[in-house]
From TrEMBL:
Its cofactor is Mg(2+). Belongs to the Nudix hydrolase family. GO terms for molecular function: 8-oxo-7,8-dihydrodeoxyguanosine triphosphate pyrophosphatase activity. This is 8-oxo-dGTP diphosphatase. The lineage of its organism: Bacteria, Pseudomonadati, Pseudomonadota, Gammaproteobacteria, Enterobacterales.
Amino acid sequence: MSSNLTQSIAIGIVVNHVNEVFIATRPVHTKYGGMLEFPGGKVESNELPEDALKRELLEEIGLEILKYRLFHIEEKKASSENKPNVKLYFYLVEEWKNTPYGKEGQDVKWHIISSLDPKKFPPLNITVIERLKNLT
Ligand SMILES: Nc1nc2c([nH]c(=O)n2[C@H]2C[C@H](O)[C@@H](COP(=O)(O)OP(=O)(O)OP(=O)(O)O)O2)c(=O)[nH]1
Ligand SMILES: [Mg+2]
């Protein structure tokens, strides 16, 4: 029997009109430190995934999002009894206000979708990056 809880994560794939996505480098001292990531973070207990998406993008990259849609869900079972299962909600963000920047001091950059190297991202991003490349 498994009693593991599920930690949901809301992630924004911010895409501009020239097929670039806004990507940050994870701080070195964190899990997957030094790897690339789409902005986002943990869904809190009182939130829906899309509430967390709006909050995290404002907190991390100063973006007020206007148009977004759920694009992909990735789930992973916990590797041990005392860890949560994880569920990643990836949203495509297509319209926003403001100009995104690294509000927490993180390194950020626009990357052309076709140039993305999935090996530079956490392993749960591999499928969504493949799907993203098939869009363009
Ligand atoms: N933001 C983000 N997290 C990802 C991606 N891929 C992936 O596996 N993750 C994982 C890494 C983390 O274990 C988890 C989200 O964590 P986070 O570190 O961004 O969480 P957070 O913003 O709420 O930060 P904190 O409060 O835990 O410091 O999801 C991704 O593309 N973007
Ligand atoms: Mg985060």
